[in-house]
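User: Thanks for the earlier help. One more: Protein-glucosylgalactosylhydroxylysine glucosidase. Can you show the sequence and predicted structure together?

Assistant: Of course, both are below.
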Amino acid sequence: MADGEGDPGVFMATALPGDPRLLPTVTNAFLGTRVFRDILHGAGVYSGAAGDTHRADVPSPLGLRMAAPGAHSPAESFTLNTWTGTFSHTIQSPGYTATHQLYAHYSLVHLMAFSITIQRLDGSMHPITVQLRSLFVPQSQDLDLTPGPDFQGAHYVYGQTLVPEVEGGPRPTVHMLWTPIPQSLTLGGEERERCWEFLTAVAESEEEVKRSYSAGLSLVAAGSLHRSHVRAWAALRRDCSVELDGPLALRQALHGCLYYLLSAIPPRDSPRVPFHGISPGGLSNGTRGEDYWGHVFWDQDTWMFPNILLLYPEAARAILQYRIRTLEGARRNAQEQGYEGAKFPWESAATGREVCPEEIYGAQEIHVTGDVLMAFEQYYCTTQDQQLFQEDGGWELVEAVAQYWCSRMVWSEEEQLYHIRGVMPPDEYHSQVDNSAYTNAVAQRSLNFATDMAQDLLLPVSEEWEDRARKIKVPFDEERKYHPEYDGYSPGELVKQADVVLLGFPLMHPMSAEVRRNDLEMYEPVTDPAGPAMTWSMFAVGWLELKEQQRAWSQLVKCFSNITEPFKVWVENSDGSGAVNFLTGMGGFLQVILFGFTGFRITRSSLLFDPAFPEDIAKLKVSSVSYLGNKLEVTITREEIRMEVTETSRDPPASPLEAVLESGQRFPLWEGQSVSFPTAPGCIQRSSSRTP
């Protein structure tokens, strides 16, 4: 199952993986499915109460498969093209080719489509028939569906989910229109080639589903339905382009990660469609009992978000707005546990209430609340978007998180420090521990950000927040010069996944290079090799920080055991268990490239850089680094860094930038003017001069 023509963004195979979970997904911000599957999902459409909440299965007309009639076995190929956002299945038979193309339209987010094209290859005049095999039935175990009248040639069903997430809460409504699908298609004897196009529109209102279906029909009539999708998708890929000179497997993994993660985010022109977050297995997965049932975890905020923020801050904002919309549910979570403020759920669906089916995680894995706020902080430092906080609910969330952390702490007379007791750290092999280093450090960061944000918004600054941030305990072993994972941790104890190493990145908790090294040395050998895929990326980032490039590479290559062939679908655990299409692992992998190789670090006053490449990497080009309203093309080799501002926002006006090296050299960054300098540590910051 080799990849075609050496193109790292096109994955080809002559046979499908035996495990259907490893089939590729086609997804946009609102709809998603796995190829050849008879169900799809709509964003935010959950059924089931509390811990039983799962993505509602919507019957999918898209899950058919072509077959050639007759006894012979024609040659088949299957292709995922990440440049066009399209999956295709081709049958090569004597005398003709039949091609099935499937995609989720990137800009018309309520529309999915497929086409069947039959092309005659010889001079024959006989009809050519292709069978369409489908298991589609317009019924669902999660929806009470009712047939409605046909609309513009499409069949129509609509209905509500069966069980609300919270008692008395809303039950989302689904409306679906689809082009009727025959059992076969025939190319007439006089025809050389013909293409049939089939649409499926799904929305939460009759008006929207009809509008979307009609828009699709208009594009079909103009012969531009697929082209309009490819154009929108290609623009996204161009705006989020990341290229590197390195091993083919690494470049394929990069393009696979970009395809699956970018598929999950909203297009720029869809403000009317609220965003519903990103679950570890993405929108295509999450039926009952599968991929954490489509719930949203810290995976979104900690592992996926930083990449999206760097490349596409508008989509990052949509992710934060999902958290703002669920703030009231988070307040209820805190209240029910006897605390103030807002406690974000370990597993979130539509309301922000805790929907984890196992109580221990929802009660104890409270670091997620700080993880959510760290995403807000990174966004603010990168964009200075005060409107999100002043007008769109962001400040209320910041304040509520700070209040939660203060109420969750207790004062230790013995240590004269604040403690947070009875938690589960990111390392889920341990529970009911006191003073998790990661949990307490992220709580401290939450309180510091809340204080800074209050000052920026000219609001009263809480002395309590400042006091708690100064006096919270973050465990540290003075003798061994490392951070114990929690009070009483014994060196050598098995750890499930990246935990303390996250203090260095992304938390950037203050520590010396010696302590950073000791944390990596202490936890690398005791981290479970069967743990989740994102872990090794954080060890890789740590070693790159210390300029141990080959140690970093040895950690990064561990990720490849989680990448399945031929479509680069990630599995959570290397034995194939856990979530599939594991966007969390992909997010960690992308952070190695976007933050590890570049040394990018988001701070309050600048975007730091300090590149480090393993020996197999010669060059990295990121075409659209977003910072303070500017888009920069950044190209890095071992010898040289080249930067160019390619675009600046006009409303609000972008801040003029400069690159400043540690040596003190300054390079103004003006739109359309490329600057280069020897590869060295430095930062991008607001320019001290105003004119070129």
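User: Great, one quick takeaway?

Assistant: The first strand starts at residue 10 and ends at 13.
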